[in-house]
């Protein structure tokens, strides 16, 4: 095979290993098996006739030819992706993950649709930012919303990120819970209480991590990771969610846009006000009228509703501060 015929997939896999300098991390980033990744790198080395990496049981380093190839491969792949993005049919639907119904992201999508009447914008509901980012990496969605700082997936370098909102959080409690008597719930009142920080979705680390940090700092106890019924609650109808809360008695950390659940109320948390940081993200090379509409919708919504104006003394996870 001529060098000019090298598969771009081999170059992508080489670049991932060269950037991570670890085959396991690179494989996880690419969502491929480590054994398959090693085979691809070995194949590329055979086709080029050079050794690209020095490998020991403890470390992986680039050789001099590997260093030279990395610079060229990175530029080549960037040009390749930009070319495909420019040629891609912009009349196809733009797939936007809004996490869940009634979310901040859903509001942005609803506001964007009238601004792009000739484009189709379709919502997707992965239920968490980590899952949405994995779908973005696999090209199953185009735009994601959520707390990017808390996801497990490795974020690509060619990602446009736009801060969207610092959303105040609350507690969903049974309507006969003593906490329901308060119009707002000071954080001091969670001391000694067990709080469900999963919202019924333990597969959203960007959310559960925030909740665990918040509850731990204010003297509460995080509910067990996999208490009975949790996985089912993530996709359950409101009545079953209410039953779950009543059976455990644990208040649930919730966004203020949480859908009404029979037998429960959502009360804002205060002193301090905990915030969930929303970000919109898509690849730099994405060209679609729907993307422009999303940005224009944000241009209107954010200043009008003060989405990035936190209250005095608000709380954010340490990594987001």
From TrEMBL:
The keyword Transcription regulation applies. Residues 6-63 form the HTH lysR-type domain. GO terms for cellular component: protein-DNA complex. One of its GO terms (molecular function) is DNA binding. Keywords: DNA-binding, Transcription, Transcription regulation. Belongs to the LysR transcriptional regulatory family. This is Regulatory helix-turn-helix protein, lysR family.
